Every structure is written in C-alpha cells, then in structure tokens.
Amino acid sequence: MRQQLSDWLEFYRELGIEEFYRREPGSSAIPATTDAAKATKASPPPATLPQVKQPERPAVTPMPRESSPPPKSVPVPGPAAQSLSLFEAPAAPRREHETLEEIQSDLGDCHRCRLAQGRKTIVFGQGNPHAELIFVGEGPGADEDDQGLPFVGRAGQLLNKMIQLAGMKREDVYICNIVKCRPPGNRVPEKDEIDTCSPFLYRQIRAIQPRLVCCLGAPAVRTLLGIKEGITKIRGTFYDFAGTKALATVHPAYVLRNPREETILREDFEKIVEFLGRK
Ligand code: URA
C-alpha cells in the first residue's frame, strides 16, 4: 500500500500536482462553498485508495448561449481543469516541453486498468501536435480499436464531414478520447477507468496547448469540465478551461442516432470557426 501510494504521488507530481488533502473516514464532504483556490490544489485520487478522497465539485452556473464572438465563457471549477490550471501556477514545477511522443512512451503497453484486457489497440490520439483545436470523444469503438486511430468509424466520418464543412482539415486538428482503450461492447467508460486514463489526456492537452478543446458528448464534458447537466442543455456553451477555452457539444454518434440533430453540431462548429477567427 505504501509503495502504491508513493507511486501514485510520484505520478501526480510529474503532472505538476503537488498538494493533496486527506478526508477522514466519516467526515463530511467539502461544502459547495469551498474556496476555489483551496479546491484548485486538490486533485483526483485513484479509486483504489479510498482514504484519499476526491473533493466534490462546486456547482457550475449555466450561462446563456451566445451566438457571436468573442464567446462569453463560464469558469469551470472541476478537478480536471484545476489540475491543468496548476500547470500555469508559478509555484507548480512544470516539465516544459513534454511531447506527445514522451507521453505515449510513458503510456506504453498500458495495463493500468481493466480495459486493457479487451482491447486490440491503444488509441492514443491523432493529429497536429500543435493544433489550435482538440476534439475529445468518449472512447474507441470497434473500428478505432482495429485501426489504432480515433474516430475512424461512422461517427468519425461525420466528424470529418463537420471538420471539412468548417473549412478545416482533419490533419489540422487533434483528436483523442477520454479513455484510450475500447470499453467492452462500447459501454460508457467507468469512473475508475476514466480516473486512470484521463491524466494522459490532460498531459496531451498540456503538450499541445490548443486554443480550444471541443468536448464531444456528455462523458467528455463530465470528465474535463465536471459538468453533469444534460449535454443538449449546455451544448454550444464556452467554458474557461485550464487557461484555455472549452466548448461542449453533442457526440457525433448522438447525431447518427438522431439525424435531425445534425443542425446542432453544425451550429456548434460554426461557433468553433468564429472562435478561431477562421471566418
Ligand atoms: N466514438 C468516440 O467517442 N471516440 C472514437 O474514437 C470513436 C467513436
């Protein structure tokens, strides 16, 4: 247990996360009124160490959607975003210039969670390592698992179409997922799987330093922004995220199931274009 804790602390230290708190068993959760600065220093613990608990996320106030730039954005106090904001803090030791290759090499032939058992290929991510725009989906499906690349199945084709309609090329952007291995039967990734895998995603985002992170679907929104509200309610909203911006939108697979909702995705891609000043 000691070694496990030490490994875990080292892992988060490498991410620039230095401070943790320990909630005594039986004590109440951090109140929603927790001072943001304090909450910022906390970070998500692994589910296997029950004595170190993740702070509850303070509520996020929804904001009316805006149709013209510059977008108003909502600060997000979710732990994931906080972990990333720590990289901006002068006190946080920061490994400069960590590259995607280094992160991938650290990920290795990952067996950190149970998803490794059913996967064929780790789907690390694909695209421009200096992209202004990152898309974050949920997790690889069968096609992605076969090819080792994100969004190459039907949902990927729709994403490609949206990217093209927006006047961009797939190779201009970076595409990745909350988890890098296919969940069995394409189920939604579970919390412990996300907790294990998402630090690699945060490192990818930090390495790329995009201007905008586009969260595709509820799991990405929940994980990166800590927002549990229905995706169809909050889509089209910009959020402050780790010193950059994030936009929540629906997952292309949702649009495949509900073809009439393609207009939603088109609208949100227009916002992306406006935000990036491509119009
Ligand atoms: N759906 C996702 O969320 N990610 C992929 O890579 C493919 C489909």
List keywords for this structure.
7 strands, Uracil-DNA Glycosylase, subunit E, 12 helices, 7-stranded mixed β-sheet, globular, 279 residues, binds uracil
Q: Can I get a quick summary?
A:
The chain is an alpha/beta fold. Helices cover 39% and strands 10% of the residues.
Please describe what this structure looks like.
The protein is an alpha/beta fold and 279 residues long. The chain folds into 2 domains: 1-63, no CATH class; 100-276, Uracil-DNA Glycosylase, subunit E. Helices cover 39% and strands 10% of the residues. Strands 1-6-7-5-3-4-2 form a 7-stranded mixed β-sheet. A hairpin with a 2-residue loop joins strand 6 and strand 7 (244-249). It is globular, with a radius of gyration of 18 Å. Uracil (URA) binds at residues 137-141, 144, 150-151, 153, 155-156, 177, 253. The site of uracil has 13 residues, from helix 7.
The helix/strand order is: HHEHHHEEHHEHEHHEEHH
List low-pLDDT spans: 14-69, 85-94
Please state the CA-atom Rg, rounded to the nearest Å: 18 Å
CATH class of the largest domain: Alpha Beta
- CATH homology superfamily of the largest domain: Uracil-DNA glycosylase-like domain
**How large a portion of the residues is in β-strands, by DSSP E?**
5-15%
CA distance, first residue to last residue: 55 Å
**Count of structural domains:** 2
Question: Percent helix among the residues?
Answer: 25-40%
Report on the biggest sheet: 7 strands, mixed
If you consult CATH, what is the topology of the largest domain? Uracil-DNA Glycosylase, subunit E
Total number of helices: 12
- Ligands present: uracil
